[in-house]
Amino acid sequence: QVQLVESGGGLVQAGGSLRLSCATSGSIRGVSDMGWYRQAPGKQRELVADMTIAAGTNYADSVKGRFTISRDNGKNTVYLQMNSLKPEDTAVYYCNTKPPILDWGQGTQVTVSS
C-alpha cells in the first residue's frame, strides 16, 4: 500500500505563493490519476486539482489560473504550485488518487492571512 506524506504548507500573506509536495512511499508510476484535495474548517473535503490520463489536468473553478498540479514519477512525488493565494484557500491540503482509494496522509496546513 502506497503511503502519502504531504509537506510545504505554512502561513503566507494574501497574494503569496506556496509549493506543496506529496511524497509517496511506493512508486506512483503505475498510478495514472492523482489529485490534490483540501478541507477547510467546518467544510467537507474537496478536490481542487487533478491529473488524469483521460483528461489531463483539471482544476476547481475557485483555483483555476492560480494553482498548478504536476508530478515527477522518478521522485514518486506530486506537487501543487499555489500562486495568488487568498484567505479562502486556508485549509489542510491532502493528495490522493482520483478517486481517493489510498489511506489519507496527515495533510499539510495552509493558512493565508488577509
Structural features, described:
- It is a single chain.
- It is built from no helices and 10 strands.
- The protein has 114 residues and is mainly β.
- The strands form 2 sheets. The protein has a 6-stranded mixed β-sheet, with no helix packed on it.
- A hairpin with a 3-residue loop joins strand 5 (46-52) and strand 6 (56-59).
- The mean pLDDT is 93.
Question: Topology of this structure?
Answer:
Layout: E1 4-7, E2 10-13, E3 18-24, E4 34-39, E5 46-52, E6 56-59, E7 67-72, E8 77-82, E9 91-97, E10 108-113
Parallel strand pairs: 2-10
Antiparallel strand pairs: 1-3, 3-8, 4-5, 4-9, 5-6, 7-8, 9-10
Q: In summary, what is this structure?
A:
By secondary structure, the chain is an all-beta fold. The protein has no helices and ten strands.
Judged by helices, strands and strand pairing, the structural class is mainly beta
| Principal-axes shape call | globular
Please report the number of helical segments: 0
Helix share bin? under 10%
Strand content: over 45%
The largest sheet, given as strand count, sense and whether it forms a barrel, is: 6 strands, mixed
Pick out its properties.
114 residues; four-stranded antiparallel sheet; 10 strands; six-stranded mixed sheet
